[in-house]
Amino acid sequence: GECRLTNAARLRLKESDRLATVTQTLRALGAAVEEGPDSLTFHGSPILEGGVTVDCCNDHRIAMMSAVLATRAQGPSVIRGAQCVAKSYPAFFEDFRELGGTCAEI
Questions:
Q1: Residue of 36, 38, 43, 100 with fewest CB within 10 Å of its CB?
Q2: How far is CA 23 from CA 1, 19, 74, 79, 90, in A?
Q3: How far is 74 from 60, CA to CA, in rounded Å?
Q4: Residue 90 burial by CB count (10 A; 0-12/13-18/19+): exposed, middle or buried?
Q5: H or E segment and range at residue 25
Q6: How far apart (Å, rounded) are the C-alpha atoms in residues 23 and 35?
């Protein structure tokens, strides 16, 4: 299916331009997403390709999103700058592992 997030222009003014960063991250992982001036449109996919390195742009929300999305990817993914999750959720990766996620610091 399709999902559209609208009236989101203010997300461009955060730690990163979150509309652009979400788009870049999702596309790198293999998702179909379209970016508009104040919107994102997601086109459903049952699984992501993965097997890539993504840069979270020092944005803790993008790092956490990337980790969760990587659980649905066929190939292992690297999240550059993932330590930024300490800003808002220092135990994120510990909890991620407890919930069944796999990750390693490199």
A1: 100
A2: 17, 6, 19, 15, 25
A3: 23
A4: exposed
A5: helix 18-29
A6: 7
Name the one residue in this structure whose structure tokens are 């999240």.
Answer: 79
- Span 41-62, pLDDT tens digits: 999 988 899 999 999 999 999 9
Give the global pTM: 0.88
Q: d(Cα 82, Cα 25) in Å, to the nearest integer?
A: 13
Rounded to whole angstroms, the Cα distance separating 57 from 13 reads 13
Contacts of 81 (CB under 8 A, 6+ apart): 55, 56, 57, 58, 63
